[in-house]
Amino acid sequence: MASITAKLVKELRDKTSVGMMDAKKALVATDGDMDKAVDFLREKGIAKAEKKSGNVAANGLAHITVDGNVAAITEINSETDFVATNDRFKNLVNTITDLIAANKPADLDAAMALTNDKGQSINDLIVEQTQVTSEKTTLRRFTVLEKADGDVFGAYLHNGGQIAALVELEGADESVAKNVAMHVAAVNPEFVSRDEIPAERLDHEREVLKKEALNEGKPEKIVEKMVEGRLRKFLSEISLADQEFVMDSDQTVSQYVASKGGKLKKFVRYEVGEGIEKKVENFEDEVNSQING
């Protein structure tokens, strides 16, 4: 049997907002499996669907460059927001994103080898930045999109580049695409449409919702209708096409785009630091270590 640590209990509580004892019981019942424990709590009606989001801890900026039929979105990290907000770092981020858009590298290694007009590689520029600031700087990730002539890109940076959203539409125009990019930044969908959602993900959600409804004591003859209704709500939360458009809740995003003569094709959303867990320093311990060091 897995050891149920306080850390595991806290992680489950953070994800589901349940009480400590409920979290511990769920972990014991599922032998410490975090995902199964979340399902266990949902089935018991104790916790609703978890909205998964990585630990947002790292600093830096996300950026977008659109160059004709090519667009690049990047995330470059620094150790502190002080460095991330200075002009030197911002210029580095712009340079890296421009080079990636112009050259369309296949992976991070290829991107790091790209050179500017002075013959300096992205790797060289990052090393130089690190030497100047005494802070580690990294090109964490990037995505390059290429569109057809009749398609349009929409780009939006939130809070100076803490969130970047890049959207590609078939038809419509750039203002429509930008509005959708703003929606993506705000709502954070997982898929363009329900057609992209893996069948096993839907089957799993349907099974959890069924158990949840039965455990609520609902008659089995109406459970199926309840499940389908709740499944539609689930789809509207994760599918961009099915979400209520933030600028007009009377229509979905796909309806808004269609009303402008367009069709959703792709989107990419970067939030700085998502999925990166940063060591949390205890300020008192840090002060004591400096006094006693």
UniProtKB/TrEMBL annotation:
Location, primary (coarse class): cytoplasm
Positions of transmembrane segments: none
Record keywords: Cytoplasm, Elongation factor, Protein biosynthesis
Pfam families cross-referenced by the UniProt entry: EF_TS
Subcellular location: Cytoplasm
Top-level taxon in the UniProt lineage: Bacteria
Record's GO cellular component terms: cytoplasm
Alphabetized InterPro entries for the sequence: EF-Ts_dimer_sf (IPR036402), Transl_elong_EFTs/EF1B (IPR001816), Transl_elong_EFTs/EF1B_dimer (IPR014039), Transl_elong_Ts_CS (IPR018101), UBA-like_sf (IPR009060)
Domain Translation elongation factor EFTs/EF1B dimerisation: from-to ranges: 71-274
Keyword Iron-sulfur annotated: no
Region (Involved in Mg(2+) ion dislocation from EF-Tu): 80-83
PROSITE patterns cross-referenced by the UniProt entry: EF_TS_1
A molecular function (GO) term: translation elongation factor activity
Role according to the record: Associates with the EF-Tu.GDP complex and induces the exchange of GDP to GTP. It remains bound to the aminoacyl-tRNA.EF-Tu.GTP complex up to the GTP hydrolysis stage on the ribosome.
Protein family per UniProt: Belongs to the EF-Ts family.
Protein name per the record: Elongation factor Ts
Gene name linked to the record: tsf
